[in-house]
Design brief:
With 681 residues, the chain is an alpha+beta fold. 19% of the residues lie in helices and 33% in strands. Strands 5, 6, 7, 8, 10, 11, 13, 14, 18 and 19 form a ten-stranded antiparallel β-sheet that branches. Strands 29-28-22-21-20-32-31-30 form an eight-stranded parallel β-sheet. Strands 4, 9, 12, 15, 16 and 17 form a six-stranded antiparallel β-sheet that branches. Helix 3 (295-308) runs parallel beside helix 4 (346-355) and helix 10 (544-555) runs parallel beside helix 11. The longest helix is centred in the middle third of the chain and has 18 residues, at 443-460. The mean pLDDT is 95.
Length: 681
């Protein structure tokens, strides 16, 4: 039997079902099953290593049935122990497919599932013989250097075109609650003009593995397992468990495949009525209050934020607790207003923000409490914490809360109510500044419980905008982003380095979700040190081009305005206002446009960068000069008809164009421009 669905061709031999062909790939000779399943105590027929293939049940599973309902295909397999369903879902407007698998115990005795893949793909592209011409792009991560793609051939990764390679594989995994601390859960395979992009939608443990099985390349995609996060799941009779969802997208170019994944992400991204217009948000943390906001300073900065055009004003860490900002974190957890910093109460300040025509916001780190937070330590029971080796896990002066505990959910629900109804918050920034690693409890269950709580808060307070942040972009996964309409992409504090993130980030996060800092007034201090300069210093040291580059950094995504903009001169301030007006003009476009990477991905240290949004025959393009380049040529193969400056209109922009290229000329380094290009349809 053989049947085709979307880009997948399946065959069945002796009641075993295989992926025969994928994306016009070569014929599958190794007959790798479409799922991998390992049950505890059962023989693994090959070395475990990191491949996550040829597991105990995979070759004994037999085809039972398949069903196609509208845009979904479900394949059911079974053996003497269990039944496995793998579900594929397609969408009308994108060449992307969503997949997950679910296993159910059909045996009389309990079974412990050690590993279950979402899917396994075999027969990819040219196979092992063409590893020198097959390329893989991974997406490295780190604090202040999020979304840094790195592309190598599989031969460079160590694959051998001449021999099977034994246990050689390319594997990346995340273990812990920061889902994207080292790598983003996504990758791109490229061969002979064909591109395959995948993402794993998990907010904790995940793993992907690319290996060679005889002549073929095999891609495994999955979540937590005994080998990734030390998680096994015992199932009693008729009990089930499912994998994280994964997605695959196809394209004939980098722009095409990222575009297809972008269209898919729009089907699953968190939606919020409060976020419909993608408002500009002023947050006073970066290069302003840091962890030490005060009633007096907030009232000063809020007036300038409103004048600039911000719609929200967020008071970050420090509105709570009486301890000084530089030592506050081990004491947090009560989330009650600070009388020392807000002597008239937080509500008086949020009311003042509203009187200026803005909405008010507050920060919270709900998933932890400080190790010195005596009030909450005496309130919570032991089951309210996550443990390792029977002891509470502590990182950076904070314990991790267990969202499976009713007492935790109850207190934090009341906390959000207090923040919204008593303190007047219409925006809540949820942060998460540490990673737990592994714990005795199921981290997967805890993370699911946390997101369920978030959903409850969004439902209860639909007019409150909830941001997800994790020490910058340490949780940029599309399980998290199903439950929030915007995410912090980085805590990068240097506007001269942010373009290396901004130029890549749309490959990982939707433009309407990707929040980027815009801090025009940057002093000479370090993180956490309050700004010590005055207006005279700002006028002499903050250039117009600095303001422009900061703004351009944020135009492709969501703008988080920050810093002491109240110290800018009228001429300088007008550039901020102009940038916000132009940002608002892009709102409608941003919800439907697709990422455009004319130079491919940008690497830290590159002398220039470019990235844009493509909507029909219009291209909205940011160009950054990051070194001594005087003339930057950007290829535009769609044939250019006209070009005009988007931002800044009030400063000179020297450019020209041919039918296939845009040339932008700069006088100085660390300058940027945003242009609108009309192309042939």
């Amino acid at each position: 039997m053989e049947f085709t669905w979307q880009s997948f061709t399946f065959c069945m031999e002796n009641e075993r079902i295989y992926m025969k062909k994928f994306a016009d790939a070569t014929e599958n000779k190794t007959r790798t099953p479409i799922v991998e399943l390992q049950i505890a105590g059962r023989d693994h027929p090959s070395n475990v290593a990191a491949k996550a293939v040829r597991c105990s049940e995979s070759e004994s599973l037999r085809y039972v049935s398949h069903a196609i309902e509208e845009n979904a295909l479900t394949i059911t397999q079974a053996n003497e122990y269990c039944e496995v369903k793998t579900r594929f879902k397609a969408f009308d407007d994108t060449d992307a497919v969503q997949i997950y698998s679910e296993v159910r115990n059909t045996a009389a005795q309990p079974v412990a599932v050690e590993l279950l893949s979402a899917v396994v793909l075999c027969g990819l592209f040219g196979g092992r013989k063409d590893v020198a011409k097959t390329y893989f792009t991974k997406f490295t991560q780190g604090h202040h250097c999020e979304c840094q793609p790195r592309k190598f051939s599989l031969e460079d990764y160590g694959f051998n075109a001449y021999v099977d390679g034994g246990e050689k594989c390319l594997t990346y995994k995340n273990i812990g609650s920061w889902s994207s601390k080292e790598q983003l859960p996504q990758g791109i395979l490229e061969y002979d003009g064909k591109f395959l992009m995948f993402q794993i939608e998990s907010n904790c443990h995940w793993q992907y593995t690319l290996s060679a099985q005889k002549s073929e390349l095999v891609l495994y995609l999955g979540g937590a397992s005994a080998f990734c996060g030390n998680e096994s799941k015992e199932l009693v009779y008729n009990e089930s468990m499912r994998t994280p969802t994964v997605a695959l997208a196809l394209g004939n170019s980098l722009n095409a495949v990222v575009g297809e994944m972008t269209k898919y992400r729009r089907h699953i991204a968190g939606q919020s009525k409060a976020d419909e217009k993608l408002p500009v948000i002023f947050n006073e943390y970066m290069h302003a209050s840091w962890d030490s906001p005060t009633e007096e300073n907030t009232r000063v900065m809020a007036q300038s934020a409103a004048k600039a055009g911000a719609e929200y004003y967020v008071i970050d860490c420090g509105w709570h607790n009486e301890e000084e900002g530089n030592i506050v974190y081990p004491f947090v957890g009560q989330w009650k207003e600070s009388k020392a910093r807000f002597p008239h109460g937080v509500r008086a300040t949020t009311d003042f923000i509203r009187s200026l025509g803005m909405k008010a916001g507050l920060w919270i780190e709900p998933e932890i409490i400080g190790v010195k937070c005596e009030e909450m330590l005496s309130y919570y029971d032991e089951d309210c914490f996550l443990h390792r080796g029977g002891k509470r896990v502590a990182v950076m002066g904070r314990y991790f809360l267990n969202f499976s505990a009713n007492k935790v959910v109850g207190y934090l629900t009341e906390t959000v109510r207090r923040m919204v109804e008593d303190y007047g918050a219409q925006y809540i920034k949820t942060d998460y500044n540490e990673d737990i690693g592994v714990c005795d409890e199921s981290l997967s269950d805890d993370r699911a419980a946390y997101l369920s709580w978030i959903d409850g808060m969004r439902s209860r307070f639909p007019d409150v905008l909830i941001e997800t942040c994790s020490s910058g972009g340490m949780r940029m996964d599309y399980e998290t982003l199903r439950h929030s309409s915007l995410v912090s992409t980085s805590d990068q504090t240097d506007y001269r380095l942010y373009p290396y993130i901004s130029a890549n980030i749309l490959s990982s996060v939707l433009p309407e979700q990707a929040a980027v800092w815009n801090y025009p007034v940057v002093g000479e201090g370090v993180i956490g040190e309050l700004f010590e300069h005055n207006e005279k210093w700002v006028h002499e040291n903050v250039s117009q081009e600095q303001i422009v580059m900061n703004t351009v950094n944020a135009l492709l995504g969501r703008m988080h305005l920050a810093s002491h903009i109240e110290m800018l001169s009228a001429e300088q301030f007008s550039l901020v206002q102009e940038g916000i007006r132009y940002y608002n003009k892009l709102t409608t476009i941003k919800k439907t446009a697709l990422p455009y990477l004319p130079l491919g991905f940008t690497k830290f240290g590159a002398s220039y960068a470019a990235c844009g949004l493509k909507a029909d025959n219009k291209l909205y393009l940011a160009v950054w000069n990051l070194d001594t380049e005087k003339e930057i040529c950007i290829p535009v193969p769609e044939k250019i008809r006209a070009v005009k400056v988007g931002y800044p209109r009030s400063l000179e922009t020297d450019f020209s164009f041919t039918q296939t290229a845009l040339i932008v000329r700069f006088k100085n380094r660390y300058t940027a421009r945003f242009l609108e290009i009309e192309t042939e349809k």
